[in-house]
Design a protein that fits this description.
Distance between the termini: 24 Å
Number of domains: 1
Largest sheet: none
Radius of gyration: 19 Å
Shape: globular
Helix content: over 70%
Strand content: under 5%
Order of helices and strands: HHHHHHHHHHHHHHH
């Protein structure tokens, strides 16, 4: 795969990811945990079909014999799938996406703490600026007395935190520091972790989603989200990591914030508040500057 084609596909991935917020605004009766259940369930079904086609019957053996790293990653995926959908039922799509944009910076911080990776000064500055941006949003939501919106932002924070744990784990494994008892075996296959995450997410919220209120219209939209907003882009990203470097994927991935906010504004009827706009610009500006400087340094 050429670099240009990989960049194009990564942009397509962010477009697919960004549709969740605006689609959820057009649901009839499904709410909160039921939305999460159906999206995760359809995601799991799509991944079962795709991975069974790719791996055959060996897939189920892999799941049964999955090492602890796969289960930890699966738990991280489940938190990401669950917290995102719950958050957008509590607050604006823009608030959720801006909060999620903290992911790469939290990952860099986790890499420093747990993997002892050196962080340059520019990354520490970016972390500080982004934290101030999220703090600005928090302060506005809390000062405005909108407890539900504030709760939504707090729930959304679970997404970048879980993503940071997941990515740090994957970095740990990719550097040959996985299970020491299995050091002579083949590298750990982490793709089944996505399927485990979808299954855990669906099963964990099922009691809270009952009784179901989704209409056939809702189910069709949630099926589209499960297949095209989650399963397909997750499989594509795994393939793209072979071509694109991590910083470039991270930077391109933040297009989800831009696309998601635009969709919610154009077709979801959401208006951007001043606090969201200022906080979002601080987070995205810090992230873009940090990644751009990193790529420039590597090019030299």
């Amino acid at each position: 795969m050429t670099h240009r084609r990989a960049v194009f596909l990564m942009i397509l991935v962010t477009l697919l990811w960004s549709t969740a917020g605006v689609v959820s605004r057009h649901l009839d009766g499904a709410r909160s945990f039921e939305v999460t259940f159906w999206r995760s369930a359809f995601n799991a079904l799509a991944l079962i079909v795709a991975l069974s086609f790719m791996r055959g019957t060996a897939l189920w053996g892999q799941l049964l014999r999955a090492p602890r790293q796969v289960w930890i990653s699966g738990l991280c995926w489940s938190v990401m799938f669950t917290a995102f959908m719950v958050a957008i039922t509590l607050t604006k799509v823009a608030n959720v996406l801006v909060t999620m944009a903290l992911g790469p910076l939290i990952t860099a911080l986790f890499s420093r703490v747990f993997l002892k990776h050196h962080l340059p000064l520019r990354t520490w500055v970016a972390i500080l600026v982004a934290t101030l941006g999220i703090g600005w949003m928090f302060g506005h939501e809390a000062g405005g007395g909108d407890a539900q919106s504030l709760l939504g932002v707090l729930v959304a924070l679970a997404v970048p935190l879980s993503a940071a744990v997941n990515w740090t784990l994957l970095q740990h494994i990719s550097h040959g520091k996985g299970d020491p008892e299995a050091s002579d075996e083949a590298p750990i296959d982490m793709l089944p972790a996505v399927l485990l995450g979808a299954l855990i997410s669906a099963l964990s919220v099922l009691p809270l989603a009952w009784p179901f209120q989704a209409s056939m219209h809702d189910l069709s939209l949630l099926a589209l989200l499960g297949v095209f907003q989650l399963a397909l882009p997750c499989l594509l990203v795994v393939r793209l990591t072979r071509t694109l470097p991590g910083p470039e994927i991270s930077l391109l991935g933040q297009l989800e914030v831009l696309f998601g906010v635009l969709w919610a504004w154009a077709w979801g009827g959401e208006q951007l508040g001043q606090a969201t706009l200022v906080g979002g610009l601080m987070v995205l500006g810090a992230l873009a500057a940090n990644e751009a400087l990193a790529l420039r340094r590597r090019s030299h």
